Structure formats: C-alpha cells, structure tokens
Amino acid sequence: MVQGEVLSAEIRDLQCQKGVLPNSKLKNLGPFLDSYGVLRVGGRLGNSDLSYVAKYPAILPNKHKLTNQIIAYFHLKMFISVLPPFFTVGKCAKLYSENGKTFVGANLEIKGLLKLVKEPDEKLSGFLSAEGIEWKFIPPRAPSCGGLWEAAVKSAKYHLKIIVGRSNLTYEEFLTVSIQIEGILNSRPLCPLSSSADDLNALTPAHFLIGRSMNSIIEPNLTELSEGILKRWQRVARLMPLIWNKWHRGYLSELQQRNKWQFQKKNVKVGDLVVLIEDNMPTFKWPLGRVTKIYSGNDTLIRVVKVQTQNGEYKRAISQVCLLSMLV
Hints:
Layout: H1 2-6, H2 8-15, E1 31-33, E2 39-41, H3 52-55, H4 66-87, E3 94-97, H5 101-116, H6 122-130, E4 134-137, H7 147-164, H8 171-187, E5 191-192, E6 202-203, H9 205-210, H10 232-258, H11 260-265, E7 273-276, E8 288-296, E9 302-309, E10 312-317, E11 321-324
Parallel strand pairs: 3-4
Antiparallel strand pairs: 1-2, 5-6, 7-8, 7-11, 8-9, 9-10
C-alpha cells in the first residue's frame, strides 16, 4: 500500500511493461514487480543460494531510506562475496580499514539492512553473527595509522597498473594475476624468525595466514620474448616476472632506506639476518643469510660483510644487503 502511494508512477509503468522512466531514481536498479505486485530491486544474485527476499529486496519507499537501502543491498552483496574467499587463506577476528565514508557507510548500512529485513536468510544472518567479525576503523584523516598496509596496497596497485596497463584480461586471468600479487606481498620478509645464528628463516605475512613461508612453481622466464609471438596463457604468465622484478626491488630499496641509519650509527654486526640483493631471482625467493664476518673501512664503518646462506658463504658490499631487524 505504501509503495502504491509513493511509487505509483513506477508501478504503473512496470505494469504496462514499459519499464520505469529515465528520470526515475529506480532506473539503474533493475526494478520489477513480483507475482504479488511488490516492487523489488533486481540484481545479479538470481542464481545464488540466498532466499528470495535476500536476492530481490523489496523497495522501501521512504524518501530518506530508499537510496541508502539500495546502496546497502549492494554493499551487502560485496560483503558476502568478498569475505568468504578471503577466509580461505585465514580467518580474521578483526577487520581494519580506513575511515572513509564508503567503508563506514557500508558498515552502518549492512547493520541497518539486517534489522529492516523481516525475514533474513538464515545462512546470511548466521554467517555475520557466527563469524564474530569486528570491523575497526583508523581515525579520520589519519592514513599514517594504516601506514604499513597502505604502503603495501599502494605498491601493489602501482605495479599492477604499470605492468598490466591496458592488457585485455578476462576475469579469470585478472583474478590469477591478483592472487599471484597477493602471494608476492605475503612472501616479503619482515624480520628474523628467531635470534638463533643457525636460523636462516624470516618471518613473513604468510606465517600469520598459513603458518609457513610462501612457495611458487618455477616457470620459464618469458620477459625477453616479444608479446606478439606468445600464446594467450603465456602473455598472462609473462606479467608475473615483470611485476615481481619491479616490486621486490622496490621493497628491498625501501628496507635499505628504513634501516640506513642503523648501518651508519649501529653498524651491522655478526649474527644479523640480511637479505641479499640479487638479480633475476625467481618469484617468492628472497636470498637470506647470517653475517659471519665484518670488514670495516678507515672510518670504522662496515663496508663489506661475509654472509652464510643455504648455498654457501659469500662476501657482499654493505650496499648489496638489507638488514632485517628483530621486532622489539
């Protein structure tokens, strides 16, 4: 009855099978009338396992709520479609994000939508409550509070844009590249796994997700070949070494800048874990080693170090190693 009063023009147009007028607020929302004459929002969840009400929510004709609830529906769709795949590598108890209006609005609207839907799908409501996810926001206009993850996201987006560029990838191809980039980010060494001089392993983000470091399949390097002679799958495979080479060199450079003061003030010492800067390293491979001997210059600063790795002992200039400091 309320729909008939407030949205009478849209209902009349749909009954005449003309579709709503171009100036209607519902034009881009796929509105339709169900078998009971209720005006509902269309969408791309028609083949999902959600209940009918969750697939096609009824339009609430409150002028102040109409747009918000439509937006909430799509935020909800994003929420339930993104989180389950994310949990396949590890379930989180807390979800951190910036304090942008999009994220805050999604959080509020999802809660409001669940309250307004009288017959929510049991799977959906059960998922949100059983998972016990706490969504936390950093302070407004304080990106420095999310500095580490913001830097990682910025780096990934930058290299994805530079390397992938305008490549015409299918959804599956783009998903493959994105997952591989996720693996690259989660493979980066953060700090020594222990203080033992015999331990040549570093703590990585992957340890928090799967309990160990990341592995990858060694594939032929196609970067030197012309893209025009490659098959489609080879063109996609060619992107990963390009992204890896640029990203891991950038990360090592960042490590050097972050610890530059330590080399000058504290100097590196025997037993420290370092990452060796090597060219043409396979994806996910970070050559690690322990400093076994140091060589000082006339200014008493360390200029050369001897490093014990899994493949032997090598001398390297201090500019060719990155110090991994213990977290304190």
